[in-house]
Amino acid sequence: MMEIEKKRVSSWFWQLRNEIISKFEALEHGESDDKHSNVGKVKFEKRKTHRPSRDNADLGGGEMAIMRDGHLFEKVGVNISTVYGELSETAVKVMTETKRLPNLKSNPYFWASGISVVAHMKSPFLPAIHMNTRMFWTEDAWWFGGGIDLNPCIEDPEDTKKFHAALKETCDFHDSKFYPDYKMWADKYFYIPHRKRTRGVGGIFFDEHNTGDWENDFSFTQDVGRTFIPAFSDIIIQKKNLKWGPNEKEKQLLHRGLYAEYNLIYDRGTKFGLATGHDPDAVLMSLPPHAKWL
Amino acid sequence: MMEIEKKRVSSWFWQLRNEIISKFEALEHGESDDKHSNVGKVKFEKRKTHRPSRDNADLGGGEMAIMRDGHLFEKVGVNISTVYGELSETAVKVMTETKRLPNLKSNPYFWASGISVVAHMKSPFLPAIHMNTRMFWTEDAWWFGGGIDLNPCIEDPEDTKKFHAALKETCDFHDSKFYPDYKMWADKYFYIPHRKRTRGVGGIFFDEHNTGDWENDFSFTQDVGRTFIPAFSDIIIQKKNLKWGPNEKEKQLLHRGLYAEYNLIYDRGTKFGLATGHDPDAVLMSLPPHAKWL
Fold first, then answer.
1. Is A253 in CB contact (< 8 Å) with chain B?
2. Is residue A141 included in any domain, yes or no?
3. Alpha helices in chain B (DSSP H)
């Protein structure tokens, strides 16, 4: 069921993935003035991923792409995947706990497709960023989910304002309730209870997004993805030449420790991915290249 | 109840803490040949910890001690605490799930005292190590728990053999069943499912240790603590002068990433500590000073 919609969704995620990769490589390569140097010429390395199965059944998969050690991007990963099959007991347990799906059958058939991006930048003045959008389908229900959040180690109220304004504009185009609701959800979702703070300056987060109008819900999800590229690259272009020293780098490494704490302890996508036996390198792609704890 | 026993236990943990600190500082200071240099003269910094309460009630506390940036010890933390009060709902939930205490009353009175040590060494040839021993008491039950495990990034079968032999000798002195049982428990406890490997080369792990003979169980717990110092310092003394380069350091940083994954995702002590609102810096003292993810 919904076969055409599923194809459109997974094609869109591939397209968005390719656009993000092109844009990030262009930003990175624009950094190098030295034509004879390899520095600044790093590229995304791609690897197919497969959801492991005991009997070699086709459970779907995707591609992970990582660019490392650039002038701008210290580590940036873009994962896409389209997976399907029966939901494992563990997955059903997680989903009935966290979703409004108390009556999920045991071992129901599901389909899910999504994109996930995490960028850790070399300069401490460039925030880390996370973006994810996805569609989930079972025989009982379908929905979209996703979010974008900005994680500077050195906060700049002007960046935060512009970033939120871009998200608000995208949301408002679809429904004026989306931005306040989904901003509040992000503030709650990205909160780190043991540190009594959020991991960054927020953004939007949404899940179980189903207004009843699939076409418009898909369109909203696409627009969130489209907003991500300029909202982030504007900050990069504006701040990429700021000079930083060991004090700023120290702040960044400690902030990355906090980011790793959040992802390993609280992030639902990470928990779900690890609990359902996905490729750990793909699930943990979000972890920072270097982190520090005092 | 058991007031004298509780006092003996918490005094022992203070004593063991002081012995560990003295020995580690002596090892560290023995490293410096330059009398005019401050390098190698780092010391443990101590800070009192308190279990936070809403109404300033005395819920106990302890002391955390950390020595950083030494010649040998890049970061080593030794925490001790003696805490008491009513078990929170979250704690009861965790404990009824993981302990054989299905009938734990809601909000029972408890008392717990323990020591926890984690050392991350500067040289990649020196393994990280973890040791913890504790006594837990409620009106229904008391038990000891603890463990030691060795976490080299460059494994040396000879070290592993000697380390396990020392643990076996200590266990066998009390009961020949302890070592095989508690070694197996460590292999299971320190397993990282998503990486399909253990975090190190094992050791022993035990919990709910109650043979019915408190005196002997306390004595066993003390002996585990006593074994820790020579078992670890023998390795340090033997390997501290081995030269290492960037390849070995890279292995160490990646192995520390794995260590952080384990502690943040699976370690029960960490989960329990964070869920019950303990000082996050004390709970997360175990995290490596620097870690890396590819």
1. yes
2. yes
3. 3-29, 89-98, 157-174, 178-189, 214-239, 246-265, 268-275, 280-283
